[in-house]
From TrEMBL:
Protein name according to UniProt: Sec39 domain-containing protein
Pfam families documented for this protein: Sec39
Biological process terms in GO annotation: protein transport; retrograde vesicle-mediated transport, Golgi to endoplasmic reticulum
Keyword Protein transport: yes
Domain of life: Eukaryota
Source organism of the structure: Venustampulla echinocandica
Length: 952
């Protein structure tokens, strides 16, 4: 039985019809339901039918199954199915009362929505579609069915279109198209409740993470996720975003379109904020954003858009400016120190200038090759006050650095080139740091960064002059940004670039040092010496060259002047022959090179195994003492005394001795130079004497005392001690200055030396005694005589004591020799002849005579030298002031006394034409002592000319 026949044959109450409709909806029998509704329009009106569908139609049912039915239901043109059998449904057992009771218990869902817009009342169908979509999402999560459900009805309601685009499309694309591996477990109501900041961060949470820098996913996400979500800027969303977005976003208040425009554009501020945040962590994402997205007007609404984005012209212009400002701000905030990141900043600037219809900027490589002057930068944008905008308030409307325009673009472009020039040579430099140097205008900070750059480029290619010429041009451009080529900057002494506060002379001097350190001597001379337009003054050129030479010297590890840093030092000095022709500094450095080379020929190790380095000479407190270390560490090196003396003198010529209080060498006066040369020789000779004695080579030490100290040694005081007490009180003279405290000590040490088993034996005797002990004592006494001549008065007693001991030993040895000679004479050679007569009286008389002669000689021995020394000391100490007036007489008396004593010593027993050996020794001892005592009374030495006295 068909439904029409059934209804005609028996009456079906409205309650039963409603229950039947509920059953059909629950079973998703859309055809039977449509037939039932078509025959019971009064019982099942549109709103009741929609409520039944909303409550009982299964949410898992595909939208395409019932959307055509909804379209016909809304239009009122329903179709019926004739073969529908009502017998399939059990309604006969229900009375009308029971049916009504069940109807009252159906609890159908109402077609009401708390967010129904007041300015656009929604009809029952639109409300049903919204509520149906929410139930499908809540119960099944099948939001993929919603576009098919809502799409056919978008032309009925603007709100429905907006709601689909802003609330469903972003979720649908995120979960099923763009990022299916990172599904958002978020319902539509929960998504709608997000504020702007949370929504932007959620939708862009996967943006750029898996990108490789070559795709288009970043722009796709902004167009297809954020764009549609921002499109639905309904009042509820505006209310949620108003508090979070306007805090700290001052540009929003600058709009003139009223509160509605403020709320409408506020959401995009969070997008701009997100872009800036990415600059510090993922600069590639920022570059992709700018290159792939044209701004808030670039929105992908899919097939659901109506061709508009909902912005007024003023709003569109404002958002474009804000987008440009955020892109420039992000360029300043990119902190990655790499050439790739810097190229990305340039791509951002290029893209923004294109979007804002500004003049096109050249490519980075073109700009680097041209290094064009930077024009159009006024004092306002280069003010120190703008430094704060590099750190805070990057999106502030008052920030002239990020304001989209020609001036800010020129500044950013200049900073990009500056940073790129630094990064290309390996010195990490960011755009932000370059901006700080330009705006702060602090010379100290610029010098620090400049020196870092120069150290980085110090190891360039050694054989390519073109590289160094270009490098010089780039460094000079970094200082001035080419301002000298502009009419307004031709006479400026201060540049505009990142090193603008440094003088051009300073920069050129550092470039010259760079050339010299990399062996570009010919290039350096062609630019700085022979060029008609010399960048440096002659004085500065000399100072810079010497500084470069000393830097090479200080970094040298080998003392050989034909290799390494010392060779480079020498080459630098030879690079400017005209400039350094008469330079004292050059002479000093050349002497330093020579002395370094000579020292390098010896083994020399300092404390803790530290080997000798050339720089040690310059920092050592007492360079002459290094010669002592050479003598200690190189056996027999004292024999090369001429070489060592030359080393000491070269140290003086190198300026290592006379220094300022800060340790730097100073220019000496002529008299100072001569004095220091003499002192150096005295010290070195004294060191060699001490070294020879330490090596038990007394013969060498003795030869140095009598041959070298005799000529160079002077008094230990600059003024005779006899003049110290001529005045007193305020008129008293200052104590005498010690000028030679080394020679007398060396002579004294030689005089104190005693022979031992390890003492080197002499190779020739000359006219001296064949007795080694007597010869050694003679040499010691001669050394002590030299010490007496030059030693200070406080040490005379010590020297005289040593002399006395030598004298006593000599007396003893002489006595032993006399006794040996007497014994030899007593024995006689003829007693050993075979056939001789042993007891001849004549021979016995001769023996007795010889013995008597020896005894008489012993009894007639001359006066002790110690007695003479003691008497002389007493006279000297009792009246030094009187002795100075008796120089000539005292000298004559001493010479006569010495001569008389010598004659008396040998007179009684020895003929004048045959002086005995012991008398020769006596004469030597007396003569040496007379020389020493003669000094005590300021008498000139015997047989010494006036020139030698004045010299010592």
């Amino acid at each position: 039985m068909s439904i029409s026949q059934s209804m005609a044959g028996s009456e079906v109450s409205p309650a039963q019809v409603i229950l039947l409709a509920v059953q059909l909806a629950s079973k998703a029998d859309i055809s039977a339901l449509e037939t039932l509704i078509s025959h019971n329009r009064k019982t099942l009106p549109l709103e009741l039918t929609l409520r039944i569908l909303l409550t009982h139609l299964p949410e898992s049912l595909e939208s395409v199954t019932y959307v055509p039915f909804l379209e016909r239901l809304y239009s009122g043109v329903l179709t019926s199915v004739p073969e529908f059998q009502i017998d399939k449904y059990v309604l006969d057992d229900l009375t009308d009362a029971e049916a009504k009771k069940k109807v009252r218990k159906l609890h159908l869902l109402p077609l009401t929505w708390p967010y129904d817009p007041a300015d656009e009342p929604l009809g029952p169908l639109v409300r049903f579609l919204v509520l149906r979509s929410l139930r499908v999402d809540e119960n099944t999560g099948l939001i993929t069915q919603l576009p098919a459900l809502l799409g056919p009805f978008l032309h009925h309601s603007t709100f429905l279109r907006t709601w689909l685009i802003s609330s469903i499309l972003p979720l649908l694309r995120f979960n099923y198209e763009y990022h299916p591996e990172d599904t958002l477990f978020l319902t539509i109501p929960a998504f709608e409740q997000l504020d702007v900041e949370s929504g932007v961060n959620l939708l862009l949470s996967r943006t750029g993470i898996n990108g490789n820098g070559n795709g288009t996913t970043v722009g796709r996400d902004l167009r297809g996720l954020v764009g549609p979500w921002m499109y639905g800027g309904n009042k509820r969303k505006r209310k949620n975003s108003r508090t979070s977005s306007q805090v700290g976003l001052q540009p929003i208040a600058a709009l003139d379109e009223g509160q509605h425009a403020n709320e409408k554009c506020a959401g995009w501020e969070e997008v701009f904020k997100w872009i800036i945040q990415q600059a510090g962590t993922a600069w590639e994402t920022v570059v992709e954003v700018v290159e792939q997205w044209d701004g808030p007007g670039d929105v992908d609404l899919g097939v659901y858009g109506d061709g508009t984005v909902g912005f007024e012209e003023s709003e569109q212009q404002h958002l474009e400016r804000r987008y440009g400002r955020s892109a420039i701000a992000a360029a300043y905030l990119i902190s990655d120190e790499s050439v790739e990141a810097l190229a990305g900043v340039h791509r951002i600037l290029t893209r923004i200038t294109t979007l804002l219809d500004q003049d096109r900027i050249p490519t980075l490589q073109t700009a680097i090759s041209l290094l064009s002057p930077v024009s159009g930068l006024d004092e306002k944008i280069l003010s120190k006050d703008n430094v704060v905008y590099l750190r805070n308030g990057l999106l502030d409307e008052h920030n002239c650095l990020t304001r989209p325009g020609e001036t800010s673009a020129r500044l950013l472009h200049a900073l990009i080139i500056s940073a790129y020039l630094c990064m290309r040579v390996g010195y990490n430099f960011t755009v932000r740091r370059a901006g700080e140097l330009v705006l702060l205008q602090e010379q100290r900070e610029q010098k620090v960064e400049f020196n870092k750059l120069m150290r980085q480029v110090s190891n360039g290619p050694k054989g390519d002059d073109r590289y160094w010429i270009k490098l010089r041009s780039e460094i000079l451009w970094l200082r001035s940004w080419g301002a000298e080529e502009l009419p307004e900057g031709a006479g400026d002494t201060v540049g505009r670039g990142v090193f603008g506060q440094l003088s051009k002379a300073y920069v050129e001097a550092e470039i010259l040092k760079l050339f010299l350190s990399n062996n570009r001597y010919t290039l350096a001379r062609s630019i700085y010496e022979t060029s008609p337009d010399r960048p440096l003054s002659n004085e500065l050129l000399v100072d810079t060259t010497i500084a470069a030479a000393m830097n090479a010297y200080d970094n040298a590890t080998n003392a050989n002047k034909t290799r390494g840093g010392v060779k480079k030092c020498n080459d630098i000095l030879e690079a400017f022959p005209d400039t350094l022709e008469d330079s004292l500094d050059k002479d000093q450095v050349m002497s330093l090179i020579n002395v370094t080379h000579w020292i390098g020929e010896y083994r020399l190790v300092f404390k803790q195994g530290e080997p000798f380095k050339p720089v040690t000479l310059r920092v050592y407190g007492d360079p002459i003492s290094i010669i002592g270390k050479i003598l200690d560490q190189n056996p027999k090196s004292y024999a090369k005394i001429n070489n060592l003396v030359n080393i000491g003198k070269e140290m003086v010529k190198a300026g290592l001795i006379l220094r300022e209080s800060n340790g730097r060498a100073r220019k000496p006066f002529d008299y100072e130079r001569k004095e220091q040369l003499l002192i150096a020789e005295k010290r070195v000779v004294s060191m060699c004497i001490d070294a020879a004695l330490a090596d038990d080579d007394f013969e060498t030490a003795y030869s140095y005392v009598v041959t070298r100290l005799k000529d160079i040694a002077g008094p230990s005081h600059s003024r005779s001690p006899a003049l110290e007490k001529t005045q007193s009180g305020l008129m008293a003279e200052v104590p005498p200055k010690v000028v030679d405290d080394w020679s007398w000590r060396a002579a004294l040490q030689a005089g104190k030396y005693r022979r031992n088993a390890a003492t080197t034996k002499p190779t020739h005797f000359g006219n001296s005694s064949g007795n080694l002990e007597i010869r050694h004592l003679e040499q010691r006494m001669e050394c002590l005589s030299q010490a007496l001549r030059i030693a200070p008065k406080a040490t005379l007693q010590e020297i005289l004591n040593a002399y006395r001991r030598c004298e006593e030993e000599l007396e003893s040895l002489v006595q032993q020799e006399v006794e040996q000679e007497a014994a030899w004479d007593a024995q006689g050679d003829d007693q050993q002849v075979p056939g001789g007569f042993k007891s001849t009286p004549m021979k016995q008389n001769n023996t007795v005579s010889s013995t008597s002669r020896a005894t008489g000689a012993a009894e007639e021995a001359p006066m002790s030298l110690f007695d003479l020394s003691r008497a002389s000391m007493a006279r000297a100490q009792s009246g030094f002031s009187a002795l100075s007036m008796l120089k000539g007489n005292a000298t004559l008396d001493m010479n006569e006394t010495g001569h008389t004593n010598s004659e008396d010593a040998g007179g009684p027993t020895t003929p004048k034409h045959a002086v005995r050996k012991r008398d020769q020794l006596k004469n030597v001892a007396v003569g040496s002592l007379a020389s020493g005592i003669g000094w005590l009374i300021n008498a000139p030495p015997v047989n010494t000319n006036s020139d030698e006295s004045e010299g010592h």
